[in-house]
Each structure stands twice: as structure tokens, then as C-alpha cells.
Amino acid sequence: MQSRSALSATVLFGLLLATHGAFADALDTNVTVRVRAHDAKFVGSNVGEMNVVIENADTGGLLASGRITGGTGDTKRLMQTPAVRNVPLADADTAAYTATLKLDRPTRIRIRVTGPLGQPDAVQALSVTTWVVPGKHIDGDGIVLNLPGLIVTPKPQLATDGRLPLVADVTLICGCPITKDGLWDSDDYEVRARVALGGEPATEVALQFSGETNRFAGDLTVTRTGRYDITVWAHNATMGNTGAASYSVDVP
């Protein structure tokens, strides 16, 4: 029969085994997060940053939070150079958020991003889960999430002489410009305004590229007074990028 002291030692050893890792020193573990616009460059400060929350995917506990800040990255490297495996896409100035997590065991984390925060009509949310091991940094390009969409910014105009100008700027979700025959060619984008007055059926007006970077414009003939509710939408059929924004204009 085991002595009481021997039994106590056995129980203590079992408890230590059962909780192995809970008393290990936590290690600093860097996790870099970036968001790249679909068919474009990285999303950063120029469109209002991205919010990042990192949590324990199994418990929901908050591990870190912050903002993705910085530039959109090198255009030639991102958009004009064929992709080569293991060649970094980001440089020191490219938008990112790096969290330093204190981990004492392999942990499944959930990364949530929301934004771009400076463009309310274009705000979207993404999330991804991944394992992280204490002391094994995820740096360099880090974890890159792909964000689809377009930023549509209406430019409300007043009606004059029975004519209501419909004007909007359209960019990629990173703020990258749309121009004639440019890297993002205006011919690839369909832009239309959906216009409704009271309970009347809505009508749509095509907006054409104006020749000015990002700008699309058209005209609506107005024969009645009232509040016109307008939604401008833009779509790239090849890449699937889409965006929209709404506003109203009172015609006296």
C-alpha cells in the first residue's frame, strides 16, 4: 500500500501533467495582418484605415486590437510584375497592423477586420481563423485578407432648367484610381444611377466616364418637384467588384 506522502506526490505529479503548459512562460508572438483590395493594392490610411480585432477562436477572449495603417504598396510590384512564390509583396511602408500576442501554448486565433473606416458606404467585414504557436512569428507579408468591392462617392448637384446632373467618383476599395486606358480602365466599369421620386417606379440613368480621374456623370430630366432618392452603383463584370452609395436631392 502506498504511503500517504507517496500518494500525495503522485496526485501532485498528475495535476502538473494535466495542466502542463499553463505555467509555462508566455512568449511574445508577432502576428502581422494586411488587407488587399481585390484586383488592386493594399488598403490603408488613405481610405480611413481598417479596424482589426484578434481573439481566441475557442474562448472568444480578446487578445489584441488596433488599426491597419500605411500606404497602398508598390504599384509595379503588386499589379505589373508576375507573382513569384516566396517573393514579398509588401514593403516597409505598406499598410499593416502587427500585434504582439502573449502566448503560452499553441492557440487558434480569429482575426476580424472592418473597413475602410473613412468610407461608410464601402465598409465591409472579413474574418479568418488560424493557429499560432508561441514564439513563431507571422510576419513579412503576414496574413493577407482579400477585400472585394468599390468605393462610390456621390457628388450631389442642384437641378437647373429641368436638368439634374448625376455625378459620382468611383475607385477601387484601396482608393486606387480609375482612368481612361489606365491600370484600372474606365471602360471596364459600368456605373448607373437608380432614381426614385415618391412612390413612382424607379428609373436608371447610365453614367459615363467624364475624362476626369474616377469621375462618372450623367443627366436626369426632371419634370416634377419633390425629393429624388438616388443610388449610384458601379460594377466591374470581369472581377466582380461592386459598390454603391445613396443620397437625396430636393427639386423645388
Offer a quick outline of the entry.
Helices cover 8% and strands 46% of the residues. With 252 residues, it is mainly β. The strands form 3 sheets. It has a 7-stranded antiparallel β-sheet, with no helix packed on it. A 4-stranded antiparallel β-sheet has the order 3-2-5-6, with no helix packed on it. A 3-stranded mixed β-sheet has the order 4-1-7, with no helix packed on it.
Describe this structure in words.
The protein has 252 residues and is mainly beta. The chain has helices spanning 4-18, 75-80, and strands at 27-37, 50-56, 62-68, 97-103, 107-115, 124-132, 138-147, 150-154, 163-172, 190-197, 203-209, 215-221, 226-235, 242-251. A hairpin with an 8-residue loop joins β5 (107-115) and β6 (124-132). The longest helix has 15 residues, at 4-18. The chain is elongated. The chain starts with a helix and ends with a strand. Mean pLDDT is 91; it is low at 1-23.
